[in-house]
Input
Amino acid sequence: MTAVTATTADTFRPALHYAARNTWLNDPNGLIFHEGVYHLYYQNNPLGNVWGNMSWGHASSADLLTWTEHPVAIACDDLEDIFSGSIVFDRHNSSGFGRESSAPLVAVYTSAYKSASVHHGIQAQSLAYSLDGGYTWTKHTGNPVLNRGSSDFRDPKVFRYESDAGSYWVMVAVEAQDFEVVLYKSHDLKSWELLSSFGPANATGGVWECPDLFPLPVDGDPENLKWVLTVNLNPGGPNGGSAGQYFVGDFDGVTFTSAATVTEGLQDPDRLGDYQWLDWGRDYYAAVSFSDVPEGRRLMIAWMNNWQYANNIPTSPWRSPMSLVREVSLHTVDGSLRLVQQVAQELASLPAGHPPFTADVVEISEGTHLLDGAAGSVQRIEATLTAGTAEEFGLIVRGNGTKGTRIGIRPAEGSIVVDRRESGQTHFHESFASIDAAPIEPAGNSYELTIYVDQCSVEVFAQGGHVTMSELIFPASTSTDVSLYTIGGTATLNNLCITQYA
Ligand code: FRU
Output
């Protein structure tokens, strides 16, 4: 394992996204809002900037924008790596880890046992607790608390289930190789009883990892709750490699059921477009939600990377950013229930350093048209475009001449594409240069795009967050142009507002 040298130049560091100071990170873990602070733990290699020595790193934020990095929260040792998991606030001290004056935070994580352990080769669920609000952690002496003798049982997400019939802790975790989410119940977080399992279903082109299960009101109606099961899988995403899918259904305290489930023809690549994806881009993985956010808000964050090339991306001394924090809601779209995603209001209302760049309604002719005065590396672009005769039209960001990252609509195909083949550095891995597509429905004949550009990424929220695409890019620092373009005809720009953040 190479230790990181502090003198290495800091390249591509995002301004709006979290990245560790000088180490590697992957999955978000233990997300919780507690005593006025958002806590973001994450899979971390404290000794380097490639995957290894898996421990829980830790950062906290009061506003979801400015993050403070803390010392490693739960460290690996000779016996176990600390794989992904979650944290609950055990307010009634059901676990007994609390002291008179302080109820504990309890982390439920996967022990990935090493060769020196008697459990060698096993993945099982373990506990650690904190009595100081999440800054220091003590491992439970009775670990593991849930061992199925499996080598691929991981990523527990625990929440409190409350109903008229009683309340208890529920864990969702995966049997990764079996494409199965397993659900368990506990009263004390220490002894667990199997409730049910879900899967295989829908996308099964890779191992299932990092599940989550939460209720959301349908179309904002608190009397009409549905449950959303999210399951990340790797590989097998709609544009290759890692991605997250979701199921909308019901949870009765024992079993999750979903009508939107296909169990025949699994692993058929032609069916990927039939499934529901959290994000269609290449770089939105291990998405999971925060616990205990006030006012019923469901906030999610993902690792912005893809296992296909994760260890090779050309950042240093850190490697991998998190996504922006998103608020998700459930809406009826064409008769079926869909997750709609927006950047959390705390970020979306961020004051800019300069007045925004705006443009009047204009017909866009064939070719690439530089927007003079719109250049930037950290910006939010809000645009509405209407199809004309062009086969493809949209924006080029982080551009330099005609090169850059193309974000375009192909109305005849009914798709939105992100093309990063000429986005900057792509040669570090053969699968990185890509043109990725997602299905999109016009509103009338128009397309509304909100695009966050932040040094090494673009996150696209189309049609009010009905379709999202998140992608890493590695442009030269001098590639900052924003252009409009069309291919094969015309389109109309109805409005444009570009907010510069740096
Ligand atoms: C997902 C994952 C998890 C595991 C962790 C290990 O990216 O493979 O299933 O807990 O990463 O770092």
Notes: Residues 1-8 have pLDDT under 50 and may be disordered. The domain at 24-346 is CATH 2.115.10.20 (Tachylectin-2; Chain A).
